[in-house]
Amino acid sequence: MVRKTQTAKQHPTQTDNEMVPPQPPEAEDLRTRINILEEEIEQLRFDKFYKQARQEPHDPAALTLAVDKYVRDTGDGWLTVLTSGTRTSLPSGLKVAVTSTANGRDYGTITEGVLDGTRFDVTAGNLDNSYRRVSDLRIKVKHRAGSPVVIDGVSYDLDLTISYKESGLTKNAGPFPAKAARDPLPYGTHDLEIADYPHPAGSGYGAFGTVWFRIGHNGDRYLHPGRVSLGCMTCAPPNWPAVYQIVNASRMDTRSVGTLEFVAPAVANRVSKSTSAARKPAARKGKA
Description:
The chain has about 290 residues and is α+β, with helices and mostly antiparallel strands. The chain is about 20% helix and about 35% strand. It folds into 2 domains: about 55-130; about 135-265, Beta Barrel (L,D-transpeptidase catalytic domain-like), CATH 2.40.440. It is built from 4 helices and 17 strands.
């Protein structure tokens, strides 16, 4: 995993994961809290880096002669580039404008996402001429009608379904198990942003585990894989690659991939029906 401004990407191997003994619930909860604190620190570092990157001068006129390219697919969903000499991770599929190529490197400007407008350079051959695109992405999350789904000992009490358009056809995927147990996301519809930077808290959840999508345009709530939810929308890790492949390919505009709707349970309707049933007069008994 590449820290936004410093270190190279590192992911645990399968052997490393197998060597870790099962942890009691208390240890799992503590580890999750530590991951959340690390994530908040990483967010602050990225915010500082982002502000500095946006202050770098660039020539808008150069973009008129630029060629649109896309960050290629990688094994973990990230490509390391340089922005003003600093190692930076860009998500696969991100659109950029290449203005020149020299000495085996492509030079250009990022044209979408949180680093929109930032100049970069990368080793030639890492950018593609096209990338899969879907549109009208709508994620809907509902409380399950039945019992929670249990995966690897973890309960997921939500169903996440995806609808989108590809090549003019409307498609659907899911439902996928999800959860939002503690300090849950507010009910309603929220924009879902293009992936911003590698999130180390997801490094233990397999392929694309560090690729998270922020819910809304501020704060620290994300759609991501995991076993414990502290306010984000958390998907069961085995299903994350399928969710990622669709969400990452989608675009609503240069900042967002689509929307996520968290549907409130129909508590009022259930209470109303229950009250009506209680008030219904009992059938009269026949005369003896």
